[in-house]
Structure formats: structure tokens, C-alpha cells
Amino acid sequence: MLSSRHHVQSGFALVEALIALMVIGITVVSLFAGLSKMNERAAVNRLYTCATAVVQSRIDRSLVDKPFDPGESQVHPDLVAHTETTPYIAVYKDPDTNQVLVSGTMTTTVSSTTVPVTSGSSLGNVTLQKTDVSLGYQFRGRNYNVQLTCLRSPDKAQ
């Protein structure tokens, strides 16, 4: 009686190991691409936040400049109707070298308007000052713009 011996093979075949390595490689490449995209978006958002802070600072200045009382002809020079363009505004500086890496151009437009108001039975006019501030900058070949607007009423009731 002849007995046949069967060899049981254990472990992975070369093809299986190559497929597993290929799947791991594709996963690593996908993770790297995803992390790179997230890092780019974080940089864009950081710059947008910095630009918004610069524009908000200019808006704040127009809200606190005194005096603003058009009825008494007392208006701070920054609050007189005008348009001003300032190039090379720092949007982002390298924290280590303090070198400006991203800069932009800020445009400030100040205008005045008179609106009718009713208080009780009396009708009058109020002069409002409107400040539009925009900051345009470029990052990695794309243009970005931040724009804020505020209205200011006189310091004293008219």
C-alpha cells in the first residue's frame, strides 16, 4: 500500500505579498496627498485671517477717530470723504526672520451720506460716514480679497 504525502504549504505567496505592499503603498500616497492639500488649505485660511485682521484694524481706526460731528464742521481728516490706496501692506511675516512673505494693496474709501430720520414728531437729517476697506493679495498664483464696510454716526446727536 502506497501512501501519498501531501505537503501543506503555509505562509504567503509572493503574489499575495506584492499585492499587500501595493495596497499599503497606495494608502501612503493617498494619505500624503490628503495631508498636503490640508496643509495648503490651512495656509490659505491663515493668510485670510491675517488679512482680515489688517482690514479690521483699519475699520477700527475709522470708528475711534475723533471728532466726527459734521453738524459742527468737526471731522477728523481720516473721516473726510476720500479714496486712499496703500501698496505693500504686510499680510504675513515669517515669525523667525520677520521677513514679509505675503503683502497686498489696501484701498480705503470714505464717503458721507445724509439720511432722513424721524424722532417723535420731528423730522431731521443725520450725516453718516461709510468706510469701505479692501485688501487684495496674491498667494501661490491666486488672487484673494478681503473687504469690510462700516457706518459711523456723529459723536453727538444732530
What is the compact description of this entry?
The protein has 158 residues and is α+β, with helices and mostly antiparallel strands.
Folded structure, characterized:
The chain has about 160 residues and is α+β, with helices and mostly antiparallel strands. It has one helix at about 15-65; strands at about 70, 75, 80-95, 100-120, 120-140, 140-150. It has one helix and six strands. The longest helix is centred in the first third of the chain and has 51 residues, at about 15-65.
What labels would you give this structure?
41% strand; single chain; 158 residues; four-stranded antiparallel β-sheet; two-stranded antiparallel sheet
Largest sheet: 4 strands, antiparallel
Beta strand count: 6
N to C succession of SSEs: HEEEEEE
> Given the C-alpha coordinates, what overall shape results?
elongated
- Estimate the helix proportion, in percent: 25-40%
Strand order of the largest sheet: 3-4-5-6
Low-confidence blocks of residues: none
Report the structural category: alpha+beta
Tally the structural domains.
Answer: 1
Query: Taking Cα atoms only, what radius of gyration do you get, to the nearest Å?
Result: 32 Å
Indicate the proportion of strand residues: 35-45%
Number of helices: 1
Oligomer: single chain
Measured distance between first and last alpha carbons = 121 Å
Mean pLDDT: 88
